[in-house]
Amino acid sequence: MKKTLLIFAVLMIFTASIFAQGFKVKASGEQTFNFADNKNQATFFSTTPLEDITGLSNDVKGSVTFNVGDLKTLKGKVIVSVASIKTGIEMRDGHLQSAGWLNAESFPEISFEIKKVSDVKFAADNKLSAKVTGNYTMHGVTKEVTADATLTYLDESEQTKMRAAGDLLGVQAKFNVKLSDYGVNNKLVGQKVSEDIEVNVNIVGSNAK
Amino acid sequence: MNKNQKNVLIIGIILIAITLIYWYSQGAEVFTKTQVLVDKTTELDRMLGVENKQYIDQFVFGLLPSGTSSIIEITSTASIAGVVVLLTGILIYLFRNKRKETK
Fold first, then answer.
1. Cα of A13 to nearest chain B Cα, Å
2. Which B residues, 2 through 41, put their C-beta within 8 Å of a C-beta on chain A?
3. Which of A126, A135, A153, B73 has fewest C-beta within 10 Å?
């Protein structure tokens, strides 16, 4: 009986180690990465009958914590300030931030809080792709969305130090949201903006303390 | 239409045509822009699997004005064509044949 239990326990540990999808890098254990770099960005892409519009913010902050050996432990939050979104036309920026649209005064932040990670795929020792599900809050409305994300882990080197101290984590994530789901009118400076907005996040965090 | 009026009309049409050709050569953007999105992805960004696009200050001549708060925003094919049409109309009116008053 003891032998059977022992074999069962060994099998459980072996199975868990196979299915635990994580980075194969120098670091181990739980790591926290802070995103505080002004090169970080979130873009909001939309189309109108006249032209394509890309709203870009470089004020993207937040942090994530996870066990390097198991990406499914990923937790954290990323915040974008509405007032920092630029579209290349000042009048349009003003309209975008006004009460008729995203209402930067009442709802100054757009956020994404990670709830769970699934479908983790191994791309390289330091690169994983996954589906990241979380609560996306915009215009005061919170809804669950799932993003396709790619995470790349770089151990600290002379090259990474040019960006920030510590190990670096690059995150690229993409998902779509419907403006009407968030109570946003899709008319922008007389043009009808597409109901679907593509949100792209390109951020780099450091685990330096 | 007298000779002066014809000359004014031809100059007006040529100016509008030049404006349209210039607009087309600048990328035929619908709206005048003061900022454009450029790719600033570095080698390190590529290693980290991220892109880096940034808006930089650059004037792009558009078909329609993008605002009214500065001359740059107003400058566009439509606004220049509008001014040319207005001036052409005024000059054609001023160059009209005046009837001699008879006593």
1. 32
2. 29-31, 33-37
3. A135
Give the span between the Cα atoms of B29 and B61, in whole angstroms: 7
Kindly tell me if the per-residue pLDDT of A3 is higher than 70. no
For residues B22 and A205, what is the distance between their CA atoms, to the nearest angstrom? 44
Q: What residues of B are in contact with residue A151 (Cβ under 8 Å)?
A: 49
- The 10 Å Cβ neighbour count of residue A75 is 15
| Number of residues assigned to chain B | 103
User: Is there a contact between B44 and B5 (Cβ–Cβ < 8 Å)?
Assistant: no
| Residue pLDDT, tens place only, A93-141 | 888 899 888 999 999 999 999 999 999 999 999 999 999 999 999 999 9
For CA atoms A142, A148, A152, A153, the dihedral sign is positive
Give a yes or no: residue B103 inside a domain: no
For residue B102, tell me if it sits in a domain. Answer: no
Q: Which one-letter DSSP state was computed for residue A88? A: S
Instruction: Average the pLDDT over each of A50-54, A198-202, B8-12 and give the range with the smallest value.
Output: A50-54
Tell me the two tokens of residue A69: 């050996």
Q: Which two tokens stand for residue A94?
A: 């003003």
Domains of chain A are 22-206 (2.40.128.110)
pTM: 0.81
Looking at the structure of chain B, the number of domains it has is 1
Whether residue B85 lies inside any domain: the answer is yes
